[in-house]
Amino acid sequence: MTETKRPKGTLTIYDVARLAGVSIASVSRVLNGQGTPRPETRERVMHAVRELSFVPDGAARALSNGLKEVVGVVFRRGGEATFEDEDESLLFIDGINRGIEVAAQHRGFDVLISSVGVHDSHATARISGVAGKADGIILHDRMLSAVGIARLAEMIPIVTLAGSPTRASVNVGCDNDSGMRALVNHLTVEHGYRHLAYLSGHAASPDNRARARVFEAATTAVGAEIQTGPAWQGNYSAAGGAQVIASLLERGGDLPRAIVCANDQTALGVIHALARRGVRVPDDVAVTGFDDVPVARHLHPSLTTIRQPIEQMGATAFDVLYSRISGNGGESDVVLPVRLVLRESCGCPPASPATPALGVGA
Amino acid sequence: MTETKRPKGTLTIYDVARLAGVSIASVSRVLNGQGTPRPETRERVMHAVRELSFVPDGAARALSNGLKEVVGVVFRRGGEATFEDEDESLLFIDGINRGIEVAAQHRGFDVLISSVGVHDSHATARISGVAGKADGIILHDRMLSAVGIARLAEMIPIVTLAGSPTRASVNVGCDNDSGMRALVNHLTVEHGYRHLAYLSGHAASPDNRARARVFEAATTAVGAEIQTGPAWQGNYSAAGGAQVIASLLERGGDLPRAIVCANDQTALGVIHALARRGVRVPDDVAVTGFDDVPVARHLHPSLTTIRQPIEQMGATAFDVLYSRISGNGGESDVVLPVRLVLRESCGCPPASPATPALGVGA
DNA sequence: CGCTTACTGGTAAGCGCTTACAGGTCGGGG
DNA sequence: CCCCGACCTGTAAGCGCTTACCAGTAAGCG
Q1: How far apart are CA A121 and CA A118, in angstroms?
Q2: Tell me, what's the pLDDT at B145?
Q3: Is the pLDDT of residue B147 over 90?
Q4: How many whole angstroms from its chain centre is CA B241?
Q5: Quick one: which of A53, A66, A70 has its CA closest to B69?
Q6: B238 vs A358: CB contact, 8 Å cut-off?
Q7: Mean confidence (pLDDT) of chain A
């Protein structure tokens, strides 16, 4: 018991074994619940472990088992060194990551997060770094080209989020089509708006492209007019949305009756910019979002949007990846359903105050 | 060149060496930029690496080097299985984590995220799990008791965020005192409000306690009246803030002239709840936050709050941890400065529309 | 009471990588 | 023309842990 435990110098299973007077194999067995150790053995080991505050080394474990119990997640960040104001467009990503993390915990996995700056040329290197430290990786939108994915997929299972399917990876996304269709239908048919615009997200984003395409198809199908062009190019951020409105108004162009934003963040910026200039939402211009991030309901006016099952997308991405990691073969792409959430910003009446719609699950 | 590469079965440095016709030592040296390989050797190795899309195994590397290049981050999550509406209180935490992550990248580290449910009894186990997979860990508020920290700190360097300092760990926090003092001063002296209340956060949170304490001291110092008691107990979430207002109003109690919320999320819920009931902010009741999360500026009215350098706190936490990991000794606790950010919710006039205050970094 | 059966616990072989050390090659000086 | 040093490169040990395999022990049975 008078073991001199070195305050530095890593503590290993050997130290525990010595203290407990058993072999390292027994320590390992007790720690992992393998075999059937005698109660006494178990007791001695546990005692030594507590005594030393021993925590087994994950790297050694991983090397031995061939399983790190880590999934990597890689996504794009706004700027590089600049902190302020840049990172407001990440609500959605954070939500997804949370879903991944919760699902991962159920399997004893942890999540290794790595973001890549917008113009970071080391993206591939960074992804490789994560790949080496994980059993599988989840790539958010716009991280790697199809061939890049294919290459990497030879080393490690990959799941993409809102990306384009590859034969080497699985994609998890949501049903942009029916969401956008429901939204346009609501605005044109139920509210009767005849003049709309789509404020787009990143041009390269598959989600954005799908939404834009369906927006155009659906509006023209009902004979509504739309504004388009580079002036309506946003970037998924609030600043981007506000910027579009600012230039538009400065140029003295007239606003459409309804602005369909590529995501909630953009809508947030748009509503804010309009309010600043005295344009009333939804009376003068209706605004809608996409995603239904948690703050959407707290805006003024509260935001009509398409609810994506954000955390569930993350959880699904993990589950699919996990089944690939454990070898249970090839699930195919997953498309999750979305739902139109009507609030005030489209022109619908406010919910009754009696139902605060706050913190009350379903 | 007609190597049969097994699509399964891990690819190792041996495979690369064989393909390149060199030894594994050379491969390792090329990959890590050690030694001075002949250009030709380097070329052959790089070619083989690309050919195979080889990514070295992080676990093996870590085992060999004694460095995983991973920091763990652990924090509390809202609910366990329930997804909806629960996780809105994490804006602040996400911001910090982002800061950690960016700082970590500069050192080639990645961030291992793990959350613990509010009532999760496995907290310690979960933290140990992360500890085994990382070189050091950062603990958010309320994760572990002082003695728990002390024990774990024998195995691995620890930094706490907004926690209480221990001799075994370093704490990084922000200057709650001067922030709250500035806020109370602004409300009482400049706006002349004489009747305030503090809507608290988690009772156990050191930040919350500090803010509550200073709030009381500062208000009584200027002779203002305050409402207190269990009715004003929130939990850092929007739902919690809304709930407090709801009960208060139902009970027919009268509202103070200004409500100082423990954080921005709470303020968000409060503003929303007041608006639903027709109480005007700031005309009838002023509301303030704490943190200055990105959405604070987009609220209606925009939120007066105390800006914490959120991402910088994360970055600082990492830097401190890193210096402990690399053995460069014991920095001591860090307290970062905060700043009063005046917007509309306290009764100040709106900023001029000409300065949209959007996306324009300082 | 001796032998079989059922367990428990220990020994040692790797997991993939880094790196100290030794061996081989080549060029230049004596 | 031979020897030495400078440089590369290869061999092998070891990082901490899991686990197959075997030895030792105790209980069960004839």
Answers
A1: 9
A2: 85
A3: no
A4: 20
A5: A70
A6: yes
A7: 88
Q: How far apart are CA B253 and CA B259, in angstroms?
A: 14
CB-CB neighbours of A324 under 10 Å: 21
For the B176-309 domain, the top CATH level (class) is alpha beta
Pick one of 3.30.365.10, 3.40.50.2300, 3.40.630.30, 1.10.150.20 as the CATH number of A70-174+310-336: 3.40.50.2300
* Nucleotide with C1' nearest the B57 CA: C16
Q: What is the pLDDT of residue A38?
A: 86
**Structural domain boundaries of chain A?**
13-56, 70-174+310-336, 176-309
Contact between A86 and A118 (Cβ < 8 Å): no
Confidence of residue A294 (pLDDT cuts 50, 70, 90): confident
Distance CA B186, CA A111 (A): 43
CA torsion through residues A179, A184, A185, A186, sign: positive
Give the separation between CA A283 and CA A269, rounded to whole angstroms.
17
Distance from CA of A271 to the nearest CA of B (A): 9
Q: Which CATH number fits domain B13-56: 2.60.120.580, 1.20.120.530, 3.40.50.1970, 1.10.260.40?
A: 1.10.260.40
Please give the model's pTM, rounded to 2 decimal places.
0.90
Residues 133-162 on A with a CB inside 8 Å of B are 133-134, 151-152, 154-156
Which residue(s) pair with B340 in the sheet?
A: B306
Q: Is residue A270 exposed (0-12), middle (13-18) or buried (19+ Cβ within 10 Å)?
A: buried
Tokens representing B104 are 């970590």
Alpha helices in chain B (DSSP H): 13-20, 24-32, 39-52, 58-65, 91-105, 123-133, 146-152, 176-185, 206-221, 238-250, 264-276, 310-325
